[in-house]
Design a protein that fits this description.
4 helices, 0% strand, rod-shaped, 60S ribosomal protein L18a-like protein, transmembrane helix, membrane, transmembrane
């Protein structure tokens, strides 16, 4: 008998661990399902696609504020990143429009 090794009688006295579920009868948990858009989630997919089509950032922002991430909490980070990108895009567009308006006013006043 090795030190630290229990005999069959000792294991029987202490009780053995038993499986609660049958390994063939399993249920998928919320994190076992694959993410919807090529494995990266709708939020990150919208974030990456938004660099080509910025309206995707606004779509993901609507989903973020509509609590879409409650269906799958893994979506929250990507949707938040898209919301931040939409905010940055809006600020840049606002600055560009203001510059264009100021330039047209300065040209008209000459």
């Amino acid at each position: 008998m090795f030190k630290g090794k229990a005999t069959d009688a000792e294991e029987h006295e202490r009780g053995k661990y038993t499986l609660i579920k049958d390994p063939e009868d399993f249920q998928l948990g919320i994190y076992d399902k694959p993410m919807p858009c090529f494995g990266c989630g709708l939020g990150w997919f919208s974030f990456l696609l938004g660099f080509g089509f910025p309206l995707m950032w606004y779509y993901a922002t609507i989903l973020y504020f509509g609590n879409y991430y409650r269906k799958d909490p893994r979506e929250r980070a990507g949707l938040a990143a898209s919301a931040i990108a939409a905010l940055a895009c809006s600020v840049v567009l606002l600055i560009v429009v203001m510059i264009l308006l100021l330039q047209t006013q300065s040209i008209n006043s000459m």
